[in-house]
Amino acid sequence: MHIVSLCQTGCKLWNVSVATILVLTACNVLLMLRLLHTECTSISVEPAPKPHHPLPPLISDSAVTSNASPVFNVDPHLGRWDTKHMYKMIDHALVGSLFSELSLKYSVCLATQTSLEKLHSLVQVAHHWNGPISAALFAAGDEEFTILQGYIDFLRRCYAPVRERISFQLAFPKEKVPTTSSYAEKSSQLDCLRPEASLGKLLKLRSADIVRWRLRNPYPQNHMRNLARKNCQSPHVFLTDVDIVPSTNLADGLNKFFKTELCNGLCAYVIPTYELDDRVPFPKNKTELVRLTGRGLARPFHHKVFIYNQFATNFSRWEQDKFVNSVHVSHKVTNFEFLYEPFYVAPDTVPPHDERFVGYGFTRNTQVYEMYVAGYEFFVLSPVFTIHWGLQHRKGRPSWRERQNTNNRKNFDQFKREVFARYHKDPLNMVAHQSKDNKLK
Questions:
Q1: In terms of domains, do 104 and 123 share one?
Q2: Which residues have CB under 8 Å from 420's CB, separation 6+?
Q3: 13: in domain
Q4: For burial by CB atoms within 10 Å, which of 55, 77, 167, 414 has the most?
Q5: What is the pLDDT of residue 397?
Q6: Which residue, 201, 226, 244, sits at the end of a domain?
Q7: Could you tell me if 226 and 263 lie in one domain?
Q8: Based on the domain organization, do 64 and 101 belong to the same domain?
Q9: What is the pLDDT of residues 138-157, one digit of tens each?
Q10: Beta carbons within 10 angstroms of residue 164's beta carbon
Q11: Does residue 311 sit in the same domain as residue 431?
């Protein structure tokens, strides 16, 4: 009898356990369905961007509608020539709706330049920089001008910061000035969530002839820098390359800085530039950037490719500077050396970029060298910074880039003699060393 009683009790417990399991399972299913419903209704329709992608697109109800009319309502033949009549340029070919207003509000204008291949970088730059932007764009012939208009139409349609903040300037090579400003609209089907891939689709429309022409002919970097600079309307200019992305709220930080900073002489303010691994997100602040540097996921710009390019900034000292939110001078550049080429903020009264240097090599560092000879002092700002995506290695550089560097090196001897004659100073003994070398030959 005792055994039978135990069996009956066990069966009752078994039935209770099974019932409990069934009830719990049903509850879990109901909770899962509810969670799924909540997620589906609350998550944005925009997918999370990859680490190296820009901020989510700001697409407003008043976005510009794509059409086949010219994006740049200009006559390419009525632009102005550079000093050697090699490039035709057009100022303010297309002006952002808030560019004039922002130029009055902000003390610094970001000036940048690019060819077609890197145009997608404008999206992230425009999202990070709240002030006015002057962007100089290069296109060769009808083919590239058509693609350029299609992509700018796409950017303005998809991204409010591009549509509002950027004034576009144009430059064309003498032998490739477009014959018309009209274009066949090709951008309405491009994906606003994928600006880089969308640009890739348009670039495939280029013919083999124009691609070969671009490989043979160097990109006029210094012409483009001067074009972007001179179309800024704010008291100070922050001159960058298009793939140099500013830290968030940099424009507002500089605005506050220049309200109290009083330079008694010739001053330029360096914004430290770092390379960032493509696998990590853009650092929100200096603390995150320094942490990434410690993990080997970020490092000073050109550190492996050509360390002298940024070495005088003294990144170690900048990283050790106390972490405060307001923009301030971390330290003064005290070890200036030739080949230093920082990205800096200064009035547009600084010497222009010498346009005899075309392509890569001796383009930015010659201008910075002339600033130094003229008496400018360089001060490094903190906690602000700029980022270049990707950790660079020398082996990744194409051979044509070194050929351009060699050609520009030939022009440097004449350049430094002219700088000496202009300022009657030779602080780095550049001309003295050349004279000694000539005597030894």
A1: yes
A2: 373, 426, 430, 431
A3: no
A4: 167
A5: 64
A6: 244
A7: no
A8: yes
A9: 999 999 999 999 999 999 99
A10: 19
A11: yes
